[in-house]
Recover the amino acids of this structure.
C-alpha cells in the first residue's frame, strides 16, 4: 500500500519529466481533421525545462516577426498549467494582442503524450483545437 501511495505522489514528476525537451509545432486537429501548419514560414517551438520553466517562441520569417515568452509550469494528471513570467522586450508589435504573451497570464491546457508526439487542447470558442507537436532530437 505504501508503494502505491509513493508512486501516486510521483506521477506529476514523471509527467513533467516526459514533457522536457523542445517541441516543434507540426499542425493541428479541428473537427476531427488533421491539418499542417497554416504558414510555410512559421516556426513555432515549445520548450519545457526540468526546473519547471517553459519557453514559447514563434516567428514568421517572411514577415520578420517573432514573439517569445517564458513561464513557470506545473503538471497535474493530464493538465499543464502555466503562468507567464517574462516577455521578450524585442517582441514584434503585434504580440501584445495574444493573451498568452502577457506577464501574469495563466493558462491550463489538457495534454496527451504519445512517444515523441505532444497534443495540447485549446478552446476556439466552444470547440476544441488540438495542437500537435513533435519532440526535436
Amino acid at each position: 500500500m505504501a508503494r502505491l501511495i509513493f508512486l501516486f505522489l510521483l506521477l506529476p514528476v514523471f509527467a513533467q519529466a516526459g514533457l522536457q525537451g523542445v517541441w516543434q509545432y507540426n499542425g493541428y486537429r479541428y473537427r476531427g481533421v488533421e491539418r499542417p501548419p497554416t504558414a510555410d514560414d512559421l516556426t513555432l517551438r515549445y520548450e519545457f525545462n526540468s526546473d519547471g520553466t517553459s519557453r514559447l517562441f514563434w516567428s514568421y520569417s517572411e514577415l520578420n516577426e517573432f514573439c517569445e515568452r517564458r513561464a513557470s509550469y506545473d503538471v497535474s494528471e493530464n493538465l499543464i498549467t502555466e503562468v507567464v513570467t517574462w516577455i521578450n522586450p524585442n517582441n514584434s508589435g503585434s504580440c501584445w494582442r495574444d493573451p498568452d504573451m502577457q506577464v501574469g497570464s495563466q493558462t491550463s491546457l489538457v495534454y496527451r503524450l504519445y512517444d515523441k508526439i505532444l497534443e495540447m487542447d485549446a478552446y476556439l470558442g466552444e470547440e476544441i483545437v488540438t495542437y500537435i507537436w513533435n519532440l526535436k532530437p
Confidence is low (pLDDT under 50) at residues 1-15. Residues 2-19 form the longest helix (18 residues). The beta strands are 21-30, 33-35, 42-48, 53-60, 65-76, 79-87, 106-114, 117-124, 127-135.
